[in-house]
Amino acid sequence: MASIDLDIKSELPTAIRWTNEHTKQLAFSVSQALNASAQGSRFIAGSKQKSALNGLAGSSSRFLDRPKPQTANGFRATVANKRNLSVLITPKDKPWSRNRYLSGNILGGARAPKPYEIALAANSNGQIQPGSRFVPTPAIKLDRYGNVSRTNIRKIIGSVGNTNRTGDNIFIGRPTGGDRQLGVYRRERNHKLRPLFLVESNLNYTARFPAQQIVQQKVQSTFGIYLRQQLAKNVSNAVRSGRGSL
Question: Does 214 map to a domain?
Fold first, then answer.
């Protein structure tokens, strides 16, 4: 995700007398404001609900096609400290990587093959090249998120015969006779082949998820407020404890 530059000087309080203690507490206060703006902080009430991560999660259903909760909440943020005043927001990679799908919808570009597509191509006896995309037909039941279930994929692969003869339940490749498209076919009781998936080339993502703008709006609307709040608090705490003076 592209960087967002913040003008810290413009966010500093103006109606105060600046002291050495303000200078000492500035870097720490900036790091607190960055973390709260990016992902929320337990030290700043309500910051999680106003954070960039929460904004991305809340906006996902507007721009993505029926995202799963794990996808909507599929971003993470690094933690800033006073020696490293930066936060990086990226797709999560555990327990599995969301980068392929999220980055594709943010940046656009060619769609990488999904794990089940790799498995289907591997069971085609070399008829379908690895990396091919398999588009489900209306004959495949999708879940409420528009995906093919793992159970269904395992069932299909377990029924592959690939001889294109009567008795085979699933055939992966190009049926003999005619010019039918490469794909995954199921032999029906009347011996007709029904396409379950058809192979398509050059499938691309459309850049539809304005994650950069969402993060920028969230951070710019909260960072200055948190910075001034935490700077005043940190200076006050240091003076009260005797560690600093005004």
Answer: yes
How big is the chain, counted in residues? 246
Q: How many domains does the structure of the chain reveal?
A: 2
Q: Domain of 155?
A: 115-202
Q: What's the first-to-final CA gap in the chain, in angstroms?
A: 41
Separation of alpha carbons 82 and 79, rounded Å: 10
Region label for 156, one of left (φ > 0), alpha (ψ between -120 and 50) or beta (otherwise): alpha
Q: Read off the pLDDT of residues 23-52 as tens digits, 9 standing for 90 and up.
A: 999 999 999 999 999 999 998 999 999 999
pLDDT tens digits, one per residue of 58-102: 999 999 999 999 999 999 999 999 999 999 999 999 988 999 899
Q: How far is CA 227 from the centre of its chain?
A: 28
> In terms of domains, do 23 and 98 share one?
yes
> What pTM does this model have?
0.82
196 and 211 together in one domain? no
Q: Determine the Cα–Cα distance for residues 1 and 210; give it in Å rounded to an integer.
A: 10
